[in-house]
Amino acid sequence: MASTFADWWDYKFEVYDAIPYNAAMLEQEGVVTTINSDDGEMGRRLNQEAAKSMKYGGLPDTEAIKLCTINGAKQLGIDKYVGSLEKGKDADIVLWDGDPLSAHSKVLQTWIDGRKYFDRDDERKNAEELKRERAALVAKILTDKTPATAAGKEPDKKQESEKIDD
C-alpha cells in the first residue's frame, strides 16, 4: 500500500520526487494507493488531486475516485465500515452537480452522520434573505432623522436644549 502526493514536487522534501503519474503507476501495478495532503486547503480538494491520475496516468475515473475514498479505508483496515456507499456502512457524502473529479463541478449538498450540513439551494435562499434584511436596515438608517449619539446612548436633553438656545 502507498500514499502519495499527486504532484506539487520540489516545494518540500516529502514531495521532491512526486510526479503526476505516480498514483496511476502504483495503482496499475496493484498497489492500493491514496492521494494525500498535509494541507487543510488541499485536503478539501483531494478529488481534484485524484483527477490528475486520470489526466497524466490514464487511470479510469472509477479507479481515480478510489484514491480518495475506499483505498484510504482499506489502508486503515476499516473498509468494512466506511469508504464506499454500501448498505450497512457509515457514509458522509457530497452530492455534486457534475463529475466529482472535475474542478468545474459544484457541491450541491453535504451530508455528515445522516444530517444535511450544506445545501446550495438553502444557502442561496439565506443569502437572498440577508440581502433583503440588509437593504431594509440601510433604508431605515438613511431615513432615520435621530441625531447620531456616542455609544448608542440617548442624547442629553439639557445639552440638546442648550444647543438650540445658542
Can you tell me about this structure?
The chain has 166 residues and is α+β, with helices and mostly antiparallel strands. It has helices spanning 22-28, 40-43, 46-57, 61-64, 70-76, 120-143, 157-165, and strands spanning 2-4, 33-35, 93-96, 107-112, 115-119. A 3-stranded antiparallel sheet has the order 3-4-5. A two-stranded parallel ribbon has the order 1-2. Strand 1, helix 1 and strand 2 form a beta-alpha-beta unit. Helix 1 (22-28) packs across helix 3 (46-57). The longest helix has 24 residues, at 120-143. The protein is elongated and about 85 Å long. The termini are far apart. The relative contact order is 0.08. The model has no long low-confidence stretch (mean pLDDT 88).
Query: Quick one: how many beta strands?
Result: 5
| Oligomer class | single chain
The averaged pLDDT comes out at 88
Query: H/E element string?
Result: EHEHHHHEEEHH
Please state the structural category. alpha+beta
Q: Provide the helix percentage.
A: 40-55%
Give the terminus-to-terminus CA distance: 87 Å
Profile the largest sheet.
Answer: 3 strands, antiparallel
Estimate what percentage of residues fall within beta strands: 5-15%
User: What is the general shape?
Assistant: elongated
Individual helix count: 7
Lay out the secondary structure.
Blueprint: E1 2-4, H1 22-28, E2 33-35, H2 40-43, H3 46-57, H4 61-64, H5 70-76, E3 93-96, E4 107-112, E5 115-119, H6 120-143, H7 157-165
Parallel strand pairs: 1-2
Antiparallel strand pairs: 3-4, 4-5
Keywords:
166 residues; alpha+beta; three-stranded antiparallel beta sheet; two-stranded parallel sheet; 40% helix; 13% strand
